[in-house]
Every structure is written in C-alpha cells, then in structure tokens.
Amino acid sequence: MSTIGNASIHSVDHHGGHGHHHESFWTKYVFSQDHKMIAKQFLVTGIVMAVIAMLLSILFRIQLAWPDKEFPILELFLGKWAEGGRIHPEFFLALVTIHGTIMVFFVLTAGLSGTFANLLIPYQLGARDMASPFMNMLSYWFFFAACVVMIASFFVESGPASAGWTIYPPLSAVPKAISGSAAGMTLWLISMTLFIVSQVLGGTNYISTVLNMRTKGMDLWKMPLTIWALFLTAIVGLLSFPVLVSAVVLLVFDRSFGTSFYLSDLVVQGQILPNEGGSPILFQHLFWFLGHPEVYIVLMPALGLTSEVISTNSRKPIFGYHAMVYSLIGITVLSFIVWGHHMFVTGMNPFLGGVFMITTLIIAVPSAVKVFNYLATLWRGNIRFTPAMLFAIGMVSFFISGGLTGIFLGNSALDINLHDTYFVVAHFHLVMGSASIFGMLCGVYHWFPKMFGRMMNEKLGYLHFWVTFIGAYLVFFPMHFMGIDGVPRRYYSFTEFPFMDKWISVNEFVTWAAIIAALGQLAFIWNFFSSIWFGKRATQNPWSSNTLEWTTPVEHFHGNWPGEIPTVYRWPYDYSKPGHHEDFIPQTVPFSETMSSNLPHDFEGNQEAERIQREWELANKPQPEKEAE
Amino acid sequence: MIAMARYTQDKEELTQQKAKKFNLWLGMIGMFMMFAALSSGFIVYTAGGADRGIKTLLPDAFIYSTVLIVVSSVTMQMAYAAAKRTAFGRQKLLLLVTIALGIGFFAMQVHAWGVLSDRGVVFVNSNASQSFIYVFTGMHLAHIIAGLAVLARALVGRIRNIPQVNNVFRMDLAALFWHFLGILWIYIYVFLLLNQ
Amino acid sequence: MGFIKNSNIRTVFLLAFSMCVLLSIPAFAQSTADTSVQATAGTDTAGTVGNADTASTVAVTGDTPAPDTAAGGTTVDEAIGVTSVATAEGDQPLDLDPQVYQNAFYYVLLVLLICILIVVVGRIWQIYELTRRMAGKDTTYYMHNIHATLFLVCLIVGLYGVYWSYVHHGAQSMRDAATEHGERIDLMFMITTVITTIVLVLTHIGLFGFAFKYRATPQRKAYFYPHNNTIEKVWTIVPAIVLTVLVLFGFFTWRSITNVPEEDQKNALHIEVIGEQFTWTVRYPGRDGVIGERNYRLTTPLNNLGIDFNDKNSWDDQLGSEIVLPVNKPVRVQISSKDILHSFYIPDFRVQMNAVPGMKTYFQFTPTITTEEMRDRLGDYNYDYVMLCAKICGGGHYNMQKKVRVVTEEEYREWLNEQPYFFTEDLRKEFQVSEATANEGSEKLLANAN
Predict the structure, then answer these.
(1) How many other CB atoms are there within 10 angstroms of residue C206's CB atom?
(2) Are the C-beta atoms of A236 and A296 separated by less than 8 Å?
(3) C435 within a domain of the structure (yes/no)
(4) N or C: at which end does chain C have fewer Cβ atoms within 10 angstroms?
C-alpha cells in the first residue's frame, strides 16, 4: 500500500512544479503551491485586513459619537487629516469608503472564500490539491498585491478613495469634486483590478476542482454543504467579477483619457467639464450587476460553513440536505436578476424598479427555507456548544434579523424612504457583515485544528463570542431607527439638523458598544496567534466529524493523504444514526460495515444492496428495532 | 504493485490535465462575461438617446482582420493535428505561421483604428458609442497578446522538445484558446455590425 | 494554554506594576471618574459576557457615556488650553501636551488591566475545572449548560430589548407622513413591520429555545431526522404566499407613486430643484407654469445654473429662497444636478429621488399637512420639514439642506410674489451681448458660406 501512496504523491508533486523533498523556506511558506498553506496565507492576510478595517470604523465611530470634541492624539497619527484633533470631513468619507471596500472584498470575499475554498475543497472532496496549484498561488499573490496597493493609498498626498465603496461616478471620476478621487481613486481601481484577477484565478480553480477532482464515490449529492456553497460562490464570482472589470475599465478611461462613458453635463465648482453624453446610471447597472451577486459571494460560504458546523455539533444530520442545496442554487440564480433594487430611486425606469422588486422578494423564499432548515436541524439535537457552534448559532440569528429588514428594502415603495439611510447600514451590516464574519469565525474555530494541528483556547473563544454577539447587536440594532427617522448614511456629523439631535446620544452608545466589541476581538487575535504555536495538540478528528478532511493526518504534507485517497460511500451527515454504536459514521465507512444502521433510502434504489440488507435484517431481526428508539 | 502505482499515477495526472483544460474553459467564460457586460453597457448606453450610436461604417480593415484570424485558426488546428501525429517540423512551421497571422491581425486592428480616427471617430468622443468600438477592439487585442504568449509557450515547448504528452496538452490548450479568441472577435464584429 | 501557565507570575507582576503606576501619577485623579465608569461598563460586558442583564447594560451604558465623556472632554479641553498657550506664537501644530499621551496611556493601561483580569478569571476557572475533575464531576457538559442558559437569558433579554427599542426608538423615529402617498407607504411599513417582527420573535424563540432545550447531555442521542418533504413544502409555500402578498401590495403602491397619468402631471405645480456641492437651488416656474430649459454650457458666474434664456419660458422663472408648497396641491418636482450625484430626500414626505447630472428625474407628491399643523401635532414649535442630500457627494454632504415649508394657498401666493426672478437686469445685458455676438457669428458664417 505504501508504495502506491508514495508513487501517487510523487506524481502530484511533479505536477505542482517542485519536488516535496527539497522545499525551501520560500517554496514552503511564501510561494507555496500547497492549498493548505495558501488557505492559511489568505486567512492571516484576511485577519490583518479585518483589523485594519475595524480600526478605521472605530475612527469614524468616534467622530460620530463626539462630533464637537477634539482628540489631539488623532492628529498625531493622521496629521493633516485630523487637524486640531478632529477628523476632516473628506477623510471621514475616505474612512467609510476604505472600511467598506476592505471588509466586503478583502475580508469577506478573499478572507472567507479564499481561506475555506482553498482549505476545504481539496480536503472534503478527497483531492491531493487544486486543479492548478500554480494558479492558486498566483491568486493569493494578486490578492496580496491588491491589499498592499489599497493600504498604500493612505499614504498618498491627496488621500485615499472617498467616493463610497460603490465608487459612483461622477464623484469618483472628478478629482475636483473630492480630493480622494485623485491618486487615491487610481490606486483603488488598480487594487480592485488586481483583486478581480485574483478572484477569477481562484474561482476557476475552485469550480474545476469540484467538478473534476472528486475522489471515488464522491458524487455531487454526497458533497458536504460547505462544498456546495463554495462551489456556487465560485460560479457567481466567475460570472460577475468580469463585469466589474468592464465597469472599472470604462471608469479608468473616463478618468484618465477624457472619454464620456459615465460623464455628462458637469459644472464642477464653476468649471465646465468637456465630457458630454455619458450616463452615470450605466455605471450603476454595471456595478450592481457584480455588486449584488457579491453580497451572496460574501454570504453563501458562511451559510455553507455553518451548515456543516451546526450539523456536526447538533450531532444530527442537516435537515433537508436537498432543500438546502436547491435553495443555494436558487439564491445563485436569482442573485443575478435582482441588482436593480439598489437603484429604485436613482432615476432608473420606474417600471423596471417594479420588476426588480418582484425578483428581489422572491429571493427571500430560499433564504427562509434555509433558516427553517437550520432550526429543524437544532430541534431534538444533542447540541455541543463549541466556540464554532456558538458562532454558527449567532450567524443564523444575524441572518434572520438582517434578512428580515431586507424585506423592507427590497420593497421599492418602502425603499423610497429608506434608501441610503442608516436602515440600509443596519441591514447589510447584520445580514452580510455580521452574519458572514460569524460564518468566517465559526469556520476558523472549527477548522483551526485542521489548519494548524492545534486547538484554540475554548474559554477565550466563548468570551470572544459573547462580547462580539452582543456588541454587534447593540451596534447595529439602533441604527434601524435612525434610518426610519430619515438620517442618511455617510453623514460626517449629526449636528446640522435639529431632527438628528436626538440620535447623538444613541450614537455615543453605539460607539461605546463598537469599541467594546472591537476590544473583544483582542481575545480572538491573541487566541489565534498564540494557539498556532502554543495551543493544545489536536487529535485527528477532534469534533467527531464525518467529512473527509478529518481522515487526513494531523501533520501536513503536500498531497494530503499518505496512502491512497479514501473512497466515499455515504453522504456526510450520518450523525446519531439509529442502530450505530457511535453518534457519527464518517463518509469513508462502507454500508457493509454498518449493517445495523442502514436505512432503505441509503441505497438509492440499488436493488442488489437492498436485497443484501434485507437478508441481513432477517438474520438479525430483533436488534435494529430496539436500538432505533 | 508497480503497475498499479503507475496506473494510479497516470490516472491522477489525467485528472489534473482534464481539470486544467476545464480551468481554461471557465476562464473563457469569465472573459466572455466581460465582453457580454461591455455589450450590455453598449446597448443600455445607445438606447439612451437618438444622438447616440456608432453612426459610421466600420472600416474594411475589420473584414481583412476577420479573414486573418479565421485563417490563423485553421493553421492552428493543423498545427495541433500535426503535433498529435508527431510531425514536429510541420507543427513548428504551422505554429510560426499562426503567430505571424496573429501579429498581422494585431497590426490590422491598429490600422483600423487609424482609419476610424481619420474619419473623426476618435476615442475621446462625446458619443460614447463610438468610444465603445475602441474599447471592444482594445480589450480584444489585450487578449490577443495573451493568446500570442500562449502560442509562444507552445512553440518554446516544441523547441525544447518537452515530452509528447505535455506537448500535445499545451497545443490542445493553445488551440482552444486561439479558437476562442477568433470566435470572440467574430462575436464583437457581428455585434458592432448589427449596431452600425 | 501555554500562555496561561506562564502568565501566573507575569500576572502578579503586571498587576503590582500597574497599581504602582496608577497610584504614583497624580494626574490620574482627573480621569479616575471616567476610567472607573468605563471599567464597570467594560467588565460588565466583557467579564460577565451576556449573563449580565443586557437591558441593564443598555440602561447603564446608555447613560454613562455622557458624564464619562464630559470628564474626558474636560481633560482634553484643558490640554488644549495648555497647548494653545504654548503654541500661541509659533506654528507648531504637533506640539501636543504630554497630557494627551498620558490619557492615551491610561486607556491602554485600562485595556491591559481588563486583559489581566480576564487571564485571572481564566486561571481561576481552570482551577475550578480541575477541582471538578478531581471530585469526579464532569468537565464538559456543565459548560454546555452554561451556554444554554446564556442563550435563554439572551433570548429573554433580547426580546425585551427589541420591545424597548420599538417603544423608545420607534417613538422617536416615526412621525406622520405629510403627504398622500406617504400614508400608504406608512401603512405598508407597519404591515411589513408586524409580519417581520412576528417572524423575528418566533424564529429566535426557536433558535435560542432549541439551543437551550437540546443542549448536550451524556444520556441522550440526537434524533436522526434527515428530511421531511411535507414540512419543507409547507415552509417554502407559506413564506412564498406572504411574500406574494407583500410584493403585490408593494408593486401597486410603487406604480401608483411613480406612474402618474399625463393629466395629473399637467395639473401639478412644477418646480425644479438643482443640486450642486453643497447647496440646492429651487426654481419656480413663474406665471406661465413652465420651467425654462437649461444648458450646462451656458453656465457663467452670473448665470450659474446655465439657464437657457433663448427659451422664453425661463424669463419669468423665480428663485425660491426655500421650498414653499401649497397644501393639498400636487407638486411635480423636477430634479437635476449640476456636478455629481445628489439625492433629493424629504423624510417627512417619504420622498426621495436622485439628482443625476445630464438627466432629469421627477417625483410627484401632494403635501397634506402644513408646517403649522405639524408643529401643533408634535408640540415642537421650531419644527420644520427639511430636504437633505442622501447620496454621498463630498466633504459637505452632511450639511446640504434646504428648508421646506407647507403653507396655505394664500400664504404661498404671497410668498411667491416676493421671490426674485432669475432673469435679472445684469443677466439681460449679458444675454443681449451674447445674442448679438451669436448673431454676428452666424452672419459671418453666412457671409463666408456665400
């Protein structure tokens, strides 16, 4: 057996472009082509970016809470952007913009699906690596370059991009209108182009790996929901990110060459611009054609990860596996025909608005199905509260409360009064911000042992969860009411309008909650990094889980399995199956070894197998009856 | 034992190749999506007003370039066939011809730009429908550069005399991508003609 | 776990050290007030993590930041005072008072203290677990009980918090809509709120309730229940039906708001609102009731909207100092922008539409409540409707407003009579000159052609 194993590892390494005997520091840790290492690189970069984006958010939260106070310490760090200890209004917009960009793209797209698609697709499918490890490496390094460029924009004289993360032209195209649209915006566009290249390289790899490199017996309906989610996410990304390239390219032409795709009739600060005939709405169409699927790119991996974690820790099969998959597929398809709900009041044809509203509210149905299935999975489970499970439950809670407000915003008539207000901010921070971050954290706590071979500290994980969970609700829940009152988002201060006075105290409260929740992340950061080196050593299958990744040895090496890749015989959710002596049956256990617990539908109409099972049951008649209860 | 190991190895290698080819297909879908986005952008823009639209005849150079790229596709296919038959000299020659035709296509497109701008249909234009012609062809040319790089890689592989399996695989991918670029160009050309 | 082992000695040392620091710096007296408050607030949330009564945290923290920041503020203010003396003559903007660093230092210390506290608690907990293990009690399942209870507490407190928020914040944020269509929107808003709240409460009772009830115990085995097609069909169809109702309701409301018949469009009062960084300009149509055309190329310092005076409709257009509207009369606002995107948003009217350069957008509505009436209703005699910008548009975005007044027909007429015309004497002259040159130009062209 071991000869086979070695031979097959060699073949893979040969293909990966380097032998695994002489891995230098550079090929092992830096320009690694191993999916596990790339996953870790994505994760660590994602965490670093998340910390940066969180600090930015604290900065603007401070401004919002104490608009007329001075914080000289800020001037020390930010220089002219916080002259006299007060954040400059344009810098405030820059903070908001970069916070949004980093969180949406760098943390929740690359950090989330980059990490877990790389880690889990080969592991859970039984592949030795991705279809093209080289492209995978490129994907990470393009992402890394994008991060560097984005951060670099803070050190530009005219400041980072500040037209909002949606970079609507003309604001993003005319440096005279806002200084962030000068060099900062150029860097933003470069960074985003690099990012898209990274995502397309990564995404093609994920799809192709899922479709081509599954191990023996792993048909599509035996894939864990994580893989389904990551797979569909990659499809969405592949179809939508190139569209953003087009939008960005046209914007670059408008900015740098003077074309008029998006610009027309502009008199900026008394000066008539030459551009004529363009349409700003065109950009919005192109942007949101990506932008809305992007929301699901962010959310679906979180749904996949939590499905797996909830099932494992409830010790119960996920309820309605097929329904879960179909609703993911439904979300995937529908996500492409709802982008117009971001444009109800932007001057788009109102009839189109009505159509988009219908498609938008339809997408709530598969989401609702998912929620109910989660609940049904918890029902009569035997729930173990590992930190990952806590985060998964938190994710479901955010998904519900954030999703419900989507019903308001998706309704074009209600959106008139809620568009671009704090209600929107509350909505998407709950449903795609908090829910996805919780999905990601849940994944980190659950698969940490697989990634680093050590366990994270559970107690700190608990502390982290409760602080973050309560903190996030305290931060975002009050914002709904500001939005209903008509406070627009991206307002530098609430001091200019009498009707906003009453929200200043709420803002202070929100800021304190945000600061405490942010400090709570210290528990995670410390836990994460110290556990990499000092954590308790992990066992091979610490959560008694069914999926394939837990059949690999704790020690990592290129190729994942020392011997032959295991064959898969069953779906991944045989938890607490009646008649079996343990409460889990890994996917690699054939039905012939679990005669006492097999059910008729396990055989999918294979008559020969059913016959054998019947014969066995006749021979051991009384036993299964008793154990079923 | 060893025979079985060889079998597993070959099988895994085959899966790898299949997956890589599949990657290319997916990449092509991505690229096509980009052009689809540009097309829909064009349609949305042009529908926005009566003063918009291409409003000029596309230069004849586009017809010649179409002929060039179609011929190059044929030569590429012949080169691939030659590679499979291990007729290496012929493969090399046909690859060179394909590359030359590709460069010719590139030159012809640039020439077409010259023709257009002589007519006053320039890139920086208050009628962005006309700017779109440049964007379409320019983005396509960027892909042609990538395509030429792929062809060159196949040629280098041939000259370095890499194993036949890899040679055929590279040729397979290069041919696929090159055909895609041809079809993409025909799509763009027809799209522009229809909106002329 | 390694860090906990090592931290034993370190903890004591750090604790002692920080105590010394705290005691030895007299300036700390100034900020003890805020640190102690914050410490309680911090540990409240951090230490007790959720078994703390969140409602009380809401109440406590909601109130505390005020004195807290007041204290912080005074220290900072004093610091500024000192700095300003120091920098009165020279321009050294970064010559910060050391107090600033000290304040920052205190906060860092405070965080460290909390961290130490957490380590100590963790340590104690570990010892407690050890004793449990020695006593032969279980060391994993009691943990599940704790979390299950926390979830239950979270559910109860959370639901109360939602209720509290609805009552307090909801009352703050809901005002009567002052337009016809606004009332319909509000009705739909209420219906949607009721439905979503029911779903929110039920699903959370399910989520946290199941988490509590089905926490792991060593005896039980989970119930193997992979699917049930009937149930799944039910909870696909029920949301679908509810959503269909909402969709239809919303669709017809939306159409009725945006799809105004030609006839009604003509009968409405037309006004134009033009956004630019960071002001709004309001144009009333004058006697003819028609707003003149604009052409951005005609923008000059005098004619800064670029009004095209070749269009005679523009000659009697009036500049509104604010938006004044007659009550119960349909208004059709034509919205446009000079430079970048803005958004015309009047929360009280439930009206919003983007201002797009190079494109006209419209919103038609009928105000039903005069400003006076609204003031009476709210009991706030300074209350005004306000129009604000809701689309990010640059540094002044947060203060781009225009007062909106709804008055009776007579008051409106009276006010309108006082508003100036756009076509002022100066503009007339400028227009005549430009026309003359244009004529000359065209004559020259003609001559050349001949």
Answers:
(1) 20
(2) yes
(3) no
(4) C
Q: What CATH number does the domain located at B27-194 have?
A: 1.20.120.80
Residues C211 and C110 occupy one common structural domain: no
Q: Which chains touch A (3+ CB pairs under 8 A)?
A: B, C
Dihedral, A105, A108, A113, A116 alpha carbons, nearest 10: 140
Examine the domain organization and report whether C238 and C356 are in the same domain: no
Residues C236 and C280 in one domain: no
| Least confident stretch, C277-286, C299-308, C378-387 | C299-308
Instruction: Tell me the two tokens of residue C209.
Output: 């309730």
- Does residue C50 sit in helix, strand or coil? coil
Q: Calculate mean pLDDT across residues C197-222.
A: 92
Between A178, A371, A383, which is nearest C215 by CB? A383
Same domain, C245 and C275: no
Q: Are A206 and A266 in contact (CB under 8 A)?
A: no
On whether residue C400 sits in a domain, the answer given is yes
Which residues are CB-neighbours of A392 under 8 A, at least 6 positions away? A305, A306, A309, A310, A313, A438, A439, A442
Q: Give me the pLDDT at residue C448, please.
A: 58
Q: In this prediction, does ipTM exceed 0.95? A: no
Q: C378 to chain A: nearest residue by CA?
A: A499
Structural domain that includes position C368: 264-422
pLDDT at A21 over 80: no
Q: B21 CA to chain A: closest CA distance, Å?
A: 9
pLDDT at B6 over 90: no
Contact flag A247-B13 (C-beta cutoff 8 Å): no
Which residues pair with residue C388 across a beta bridge?
C345, C401
Are both C236 and C336 inside the same structural domain? no
Q: Are residues C304 and C252 in the same domain?
A: no
Instruction: Test A259 with B22 for CB contact under 8 angstroms.
Output: no
Verify that C335 and C186 share a domain, yes or no: no
| Interface test mutation site (partner A, options B4, B21, B44, B45, max chain A beta carbons within 10 A) | B45
Distance from CA of C450 to the nearest CA of A (A): 32
Which DSSP state fits C423?
Answer: S
Predicted confidence at residue C444, as pLDDT, reads: 61
Mean pLDDT lowest for which of B17-26, C203-212, C274-283? B17-26
What is the distance in angstroms between the Cα of A155 and the nearest Cα belonging to chain B?
31
- Return the structure tokens found at C362: 């419209």
Q: Which domains does chain A have, with CATH numbers?
A: 2-7+31-264+274-534 (1.20.210.10), 548-628 (no CATH)
| Nearest CA-CA partner of A583 in A402, A370, A312 | A312
User: Which band of pLDDT confidence, cut at 50, 70 and 90, is reported for residue C76?
Assistant: very low
- The domain spans of chain B are 27-194
Please count the structural domains in chain C: 3
Which residues of chain B does A213 touch, with a Cβ-Cβ cutoff of 8 Å? 15-16, 19
Q: Is A625 exposed, middle or buried (0-12, 13-18, 19+ CB in 10 A)?
A: exposed
Instruction: Specify the DSSP element, H or E, that contains C355.
Output: strand C351-355
Burial C87-105 (b: 16+ CB within 10 A, else e): eeeeeeeeebbebbebbee
Q: CB distance A257–B51 less than 8 Å?
A: no
Contact A250 B44 (CB under 8 A): no
Q: Is residue C444 part of a domain?
A: no
- Dihedral angle computed from the Cα positions of residues C200, C204, C205 and C209, in that order, rounded to the nearest 10 degrees: 170
CATH value at residue C386:
2.60.40.420
> Which chains share 3+ C-beta pairs under 8 angstroms with C?
A
C352 and C387 both lie in a single domain: yes
A478–C223 CB contact, under 8 Å = no
Predicted confidence at residue C315, as pLDDT, reads 85
Establish if C449 belongs to a structural domain. no
Strand C318-320 with C361-365, pairing: unpaired
A8 touching B (Cβ < 8 Å): yes
Contact at CB, B126 and A276, closer than 8 angstroms: yes
CATH number at residue C231: 1.10.287
